[in-house]
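Q: Give me the 3D complex with adenosine-5'-triphosphate.
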Amino acid sequence: MSVEVRLDHIVKAFDTTVAVNDVSLEIKEGELFFLLGPSGCGKTTCLRILAGFYEPDSGTLMFGEREMSRVPPNKRNTGMVFQNYALWPHMTVFENVEYGLSLRKIDKEVRKEKVHEVLEVVQMPEYADRPVNKLSGGQQQRIALARALVVEPDVLLLDEPLSNLDAKLRLEMRQEIKRIHSQVGATAVYVTHDQQEAIHLADRMAIMRDGSIIQVGTPREIYRFPTNPFVASFIGETNFISGKIQSLSNGTAEIETEIGILRSTTIYHDFTNGEAVTCCIRPESIHFDEATAEGTSNRMSAKVLNATYLGRIEEYHLALADELTVKAVLYNPRTHGKNAGDTLSISVSADDVIPLPVAVNLPINRDSRNGTDLTGAEEPYSDEEERENL
Ligand code: ATP
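A: Here is the predicted complex, encoded as C-alpha cells.
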C-alpha cells in the first residue's frame, strides 16, 4: 500500500511564472518526506502535480513502476489532507470518512468496517455520528486524516495540515501525525513552511527555492551540513562570519576573518586557499567560558549588547567587533546572567564552524518580465473541487 515516488525533471509554469523548475526527486517507499521552503517556492504546485490536479509541462512522475504524469486524480490512489480540512460540514464524521469508499463502490459492510478501523487509528471512534461542524479544529483535522487514510492510499499528501491549529494543538497533532504515519506506513509527502514541523517529523526533506530543489537530506544533515547560506538561514537560526581560507590541511581549515583566525574541522566543500567563505555558527554552539565544550579551539572575547531571560534558555546578542554581532543561547540559565556592557570570553568548537561557499549560483527561475501579471494563468482548484476529485 505504499510506493516509491519519483519525479524526473518536472517543470510547471503558469504563464510567465515557472513554479516548478526541473525538479527531480526520489521519495522512498513508506517515507515521511517534506517539501519545505519560503512562500511561493513551488511546494504546493509540486504537491498538486503529485495529486494530479496539475499536469506537468514536461518531465515524468512515477508511482512505483506506473507512470502517473497524466493520470487523473481519481485514478492515482492518493489521499490528501488540506490546510482547511475540506470536510463536508453538515455530514457526520462517518459519512465524511466513508465518502471516498462509496465513490470506489466498496461494499457497504466493508465500508463500515474500514471507517471504524480508521477512526480507531485517529482515536475518534466515539465521534462517528457527530456532524463535523460540531468538532474542534484538532478533531476535524483527525477526521481529515482519517478520510485520506481510509482509501489505503499509495501516497498520502498533506498540504500544511496543521497551520490552522493553535500552537499547543499543533504540537500535539505533530506527535499524532508521527504516530499515525508509523502505524499505517504510507509514503507521505508533506508541504509546509514551518521548519520546526519539518525537523520534528521528516524522515527526509527537500528545501525549495524559486521552483528548484536546493538540498535534500535528513533533518540532521540539513541542519548540520547546509549546502549554502540560504539553507543555513532557512533552517534554524545561524550567525554568519565572512572570511577567506588561509590554509587547508588534514581536514582542518584556518579561516581568516575580521575577528582573527577561525578553525574549522567541518569541511565538506572543495575549497581552495584564498577562497572567500561564509562561516556558519549556530547560536547554541557558542559557549560561555564556564560552559566551554571539550575540543574547543576558537576563543574570542565578546561584549554583551543585550540579554533576554526566557526560562529554559537565555538569549544573548554579542558584539565580536564593531560591525559584527552574533546571537548566542545559554541553556538552563541558573544563575544571574550577564548584563549589557559586560565583556566575556566565548568559545566555539572547530566542529561547529561550518564554512560555506559565498559564490553560490542559487537558481532564480522566476521570469519577471511581466512582474506579477498572471493573465491567462491556470485557475487554481479550490480545496472543495480537489476533494471531489480524489
Ligand atoms: P505558499 O507557501 O505561499 O503556499 P508555495 O511554495 O506552495 O507557496 P506555490 O503555491 O506552488 O508556492 O506557487 C509557486 C509560484 O507559482 C508562485 O509564484 C505562485 O504565485 C505561482 N502560482 C501558483 N499557482 C498558480 C496559478 N494557478 N496560476 C498562476 N500562478 C500560480
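A quick observation: The longest strand covers residues 296-309.
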